[in-house]
Design a protein that fits this description.
- With 665 residues, the chain is α+β, with helices and mostly antiparallel strands.
- It has 12 helices and 39 strands.
- It has an 8-stranded antiparallel sheet. It has an 8-stranded parallel sheet with strand order 30-29-28-25-21-20-19-31.
- The longest helix has 16 residues.
- It holds the Pfam family Glyco_hydro_31_2nd.
- GO terms for molecular function: carbohydrate binding; hydrolase activity, hydrolyzing O-glycosyl compounds.
- This is Alpha-D-xyloside xylohydrolase.
Length: 665
């Protein structure tokens, strides 16, 4: 069946019946695979950037065709089965086929295809892609899922964006490959013991990217070249960020900033949260509560503090901008029911971040009302977006139905502000955003883990999430220290949780305090920025003297580490290296390092072992092979390749440095 194959430049094409299948090099040691049953292949590259020119070796035979690109080789049989190998001739990934067309390989009467396109009424498809499963494989990445699981093998994950869930569909395998599901459709992936299945509820074609590498770092760097890297983190981004739900007035926020300075505490960023505006979609300060933004920004800058301001993508039907945005087609649509997406303190729609005109419109409002005052960093909230009901099939965007393209929304939201800020000449763009998709990192997206519970159980979730987000290609990540929902600063049990979370947060890429603390304060008014209540105090002095002294200790550590953190951020910018990563990233030859799910590396020299359980007096720590490690708390030296027990009084979290690193802790 040689006639089913043909070569077109660097691309191998197989055409059989109505399917067109393309395999082509897409970066060093990497291949892109696309398939469709439509007349033409869709042109979108989605998360992928155009690769540098490269040449693959394509061989076409009677029974199979081969594409070789560096360390990866794809073999495609005339019957349509696709298998990927590395340079050692080891199988990386093999399509799961159970039919009678593969008689010479494995004949089955089940009639199950690897690439299954089930047509929807009207023309597009539900897509299922199947691979054989290696039960010994470990899998990491995939974004942010609220579970305490680092190795995702045997997990089923929804491919959809929700508040506190971010689908970033890149998986790093212990077998030596990385796999990007380059499709923004809502769907599901199952990394089963018996089969791996990727599903899209509605799509026009199959699109994925695969790379081979000898180490996790090599795979991660190839993925970063394919999808982009973060900008360089600005200097202020590496310090301490103060935030709460919510500072209600200009004077309240300034007084908190002044108190940090009076106490001699390091602070780099302070944040104005939501409902500082008259109406959602106005994108400006309510002058009743924020009378002089320009003077506020100047006073903060004089103190060496950057101001971050919350942006919501919601547009109230009473907003001054609603009618114009409706007329121009800049708002999301519903296919059924009343055209309301969100009803928090108003009937609102989301601006359509997939529409270039809508992105420019929202940025221009933000520029006029915030950026021109000197505000250079934004908090892009509600970025999933957070529909009142997650009926993914009921919403429609400029570029297509939500069920088909919706996962790209947060990336386009980040792009709106990144494009606007870089057009103004800003280089080191960083914006806090509540969701992400593959490629979001190149738009300066600093992702945080959303509205999470304030508990040790939630802290354990964040530990796994932060590491998997980094491996999914999102190196800038943070949490609300202490969690978001609840937590009373006067409660001794919550104070313990807060202290342990603060210790962990010190060694996250961004060190940020936030939360909706109890008890709530009453709203200040009945309109505009006065409508919304506020949580209890959430400054470092709000948790009692013991906690305050511990917080100061770790804030000092963070400040002393800023030169080291700058190097980590440079590596993220240049190579896509996640600042926080599992032990196996730096020690791939140490098999025990692949089993450690309670400690991580913060850069190449610092091993962090957070306290993740309440009432913990001591904990075990594994020290990787091949290094001598110094306990920063006791000063003792240990040879790697062993577990040791560390005492963990409330003011102490186990930290180890490579003995020759000389970090100032």
């Amino acid at each position: 069946m040689k006639e089913v194959f043909r070569k077109q430049g660097n691309r191998l094409i197989r055409e059989y019946d109505s399917e067109k299948l393309w395999i082509e090099p897409w970066g060093e040691n990497s291949l892109r695979v696309r398939s469709t049953f439509h007349a033409e292949m869709e042109p979108q590259d989605w998360a992928l950037l155009e690769p540098e020119e490269g040449t693959a070796e394509i061989t076409i035979g009677a029974e199979k065709a081969i594409v070789q690109n560096g360390k990866i080789r794809a073999e495609l049989t005339s019957a349509g089965k696709l298998t990927f190998y590395n340079q050692k001739n080891e199988i990386l990934l093999e399509e799961y086929v159970r039919n009678r067309r593969n008689i010479k390989a494995f004949c089955s009467a089940l009639k199950i295809d690897a690439r299954e396109f089930q047509p929807h009424l009207g023309g597009d498809y539900q897509l299922t892609l199947r691979f054989e499963s290696n039960p010994e494989e470990k899998l990491y990445g995939m974004g942010q899922y609220q579970q305490p699981i680092l190795d995702l093998k045997n997990c089923t994950l929804e491919l959809a964006q929700r508040n506190s869930q971010a689908t970033v569909p890149f998986a790093l395998s212990s077998l030596g490959y990385g796999f990007l599901w380059n499709n923004p459709a809502v769907g599901q992936v199952t990394f089963g013991k018996n089969i791996t299945e990727w599903k899209a509820e509605s799509t026009k074609q199959l699109d994925y990217w695969i790379t081979a590498g000898d180490t996790p770092a090599e795979i991660e760097e190839a993925y970063a070249k394919a999808t982009g890297t973060v900008p360089m983190m600005p200097e202020y981004g590496m310090g301490f960020w103060q935030c709460k739900l919510r500072y209600q007035t200009q004077e309240e926020l300034l007084e908190v900033a002044r108190e940090y300075k009076r106490r001699g505490l390091p602070i780099s960023v302070i944040v104005i949260d939501y409902f500082h505006w008259p109406k959602q979609g106005d994108w400006r300060f309510d002058k009743d509560y924020w009378p002089d933004p320009e003077a506020m920004v100047k006073e903060l800058k004089d103190m060496g503090i950057e101001l971050m301001v919350s942006i919501w993508p919601t547009v109230d039907k009473q907003s001054e901008n609603y009618e114009e945005m409706l007329r121009k087609g800049y708002l999301t649509r519903t296919d059924r029911g009343i055209r309301i997406n969100h009803d928090f303190l108003g009937n609102t729609l989301y601006f359509d971040a997939t529409h270039p005109g809508a992105r420019e419109y929202v940025w221009n409002k933000a520029k006029q009302n915030y950026y021109d005052y000197g505000i250079k960093t934004f908090w892009l909230d509600e970025a999933e977006p957070e529909y009142n009901v997650y009926d993914f099939d009921n919403f429609r965007y400029h570029i297509g139905p939500n069920v088909q393209v919706g996962n790209i929304y947060p990336a386009m939201y980040s792009k709106a502000f990144y494009d606007g800020m870089t057009a103004e000449g800003q280089k080191n763009v960083v914006n806090l955003v509540r969701c992400a998709w593959a490629g979001s990192q190149r738009y300066g997206a600093l992702v945080w883990s959303g509205d999470i519970d304030s508990s040790f159980a939630s802290l354990r979730n964040q530990f796994a999430i932060g590491l998997n987000m980094g491996l999914a290609g999102i190196p800038w990540w943070t949490t609300d220290i202490g969690g978001f929902h609840g937590g009373n600063p006067d409660d001794p049990e919550f104070r313990e949780c807060m202290i342990r979370w603060f210790q962990y947060g010190t060694f996250c890429p961004v060190f940020r305090l936030h939360g909706d603390r109890e008890p709530h304060q009453e709203p200040l008014g009945t309109s505009g920025g006065g409508l919304c209540p506020s949580g209890a105090d959430n400054e470092v002095w709000s948790y009692g003297e013991e906690a305050y002294e511990i917080f100061k200790k770790y804030m000092g550590m963070r400040e002393r580490l800023r030169p080291y953190i700058t190097r980590l951020m440079k590596a993220a910018h240049e190579k896509g290296t996640p600042p926080m990563r599992p032990l196996f990233y730096d020690f791939p030859e140490d098999q025990e390092a692949w089993n450690v799910e309670d400690a991580y590396m913060f850069g190449p020299d610092l091993l962090v072992a957070p306290v993740l359980q309440e009432g913990t007096a001591s904990r075990s720590v594994y020290l990787p092979q091949g290094e001598t490690w110094k306990d920063t708390n006791s000063g003792e030296l240990y040879e790697g390749g062993q577990r040791i027990t560390c005492e963990t009084p409330l003011d102490t979290m186990p930290l180890f440095v490579r003995v020759d690193a000389e970090l100032p802790l």
